[in-house]
């Protein structure tokens, strides 16, 4: 029993190490791709978060991004001036505003994601389709499992996942 626990722990550590490596490489790539489309990585992250939410309050975004609302406010202002985001009064609270992607924001985010997906496809070009599909399924299971643990730890529900319609 103890050997089984040790083996599971070792395997989980290996998963963690590989996810960390992929995360670092992904962040580097996101930086390059974002700059290709005139964005900063944090702006792409905000666009993705807003896309997932559909429409949200600035305070919710700040909480989700783990930053002060004043930081998000400045970032939102820049993206709004660039025509990527729209702001409207919250009908339930006149003091608050709701933020959403504009058509241009959706298009720009689609371009960023498409280029990123092309690079993933290039990296996996020699993999059989069934292996790629199996990995996608396994990662979805891992994401669901970590969501449950995250919810238990934080007491709050995570942001919704992006729809597959946005490429």
Mean pLDDT: 88
- End-to-end Cα distance, whole Å, is 45 Å
* Total beta strand runs: 3
Main sheet attributes: strand count, strand direction, barrel closure: 3 strands, antiparallel
Structural class: mainly alpha
Order of helices and strands: HHEHHEEHH
List keywords for this structure.
mainly alpha; 167 residues; 69% helix; three-stranded antiparallel beta sheet; 3 strands
Q: Can you offer a commentary on this structure?
A:
Helices cover 69% and strands 10% of the residues. Helix 2 (41-53) crosses helix 5 and helix 3 crosses helix 4 (69-81). With 167 residues, it is mostly helical. A hairpin with a 2-residue loop joins strand 2 and strand 3. The chain has helices spanning 2-36, 41-53, 58-65, 69-81, 103-123, 129-154; strands spanning 56-57, 85-90, 93-101. The protein contains 6 helices and 3 strands, in the order ααβααββαα. Strands 1-3-2 form a 3-stranded antiparallel sheet. The termini are far apart.
């Amino acid at each position: 029993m103890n050997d089984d626990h040790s083996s599971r722990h070792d395997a989980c550590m290996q998963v963690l190490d590989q996810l960390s490596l992929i995360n670092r490489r992904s962040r580097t790539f996101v930086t390059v791709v974002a700059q290709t489309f005139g964005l900063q990585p944090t702006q792409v992250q905000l666009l993705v978060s807003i896309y997932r939410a559909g429409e949200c309050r600035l305070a919710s975004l700040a909480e989700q991004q783990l930053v002060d609302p004043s930081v998000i406010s400045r970032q939102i202002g820049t993206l709004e001036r660039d025509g990527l985001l729209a702001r409207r009064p919250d009908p339930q609270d006149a003091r608050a505003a709701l933020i959403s992607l504009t058509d241009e924001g959706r298009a720009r985010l689609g371009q960023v994601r498409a280029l990123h997906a092309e690079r993933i496809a290039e990296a996996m070009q020699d993999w059989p389709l069934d292996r790629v599909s199996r990995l996608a399924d396994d990662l979805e299971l891992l994401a669901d499992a970590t969501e449950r643990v995250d919810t238990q730890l934080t007491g709050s529900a995570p942001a919704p996942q992006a729809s597959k319609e946005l490429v």
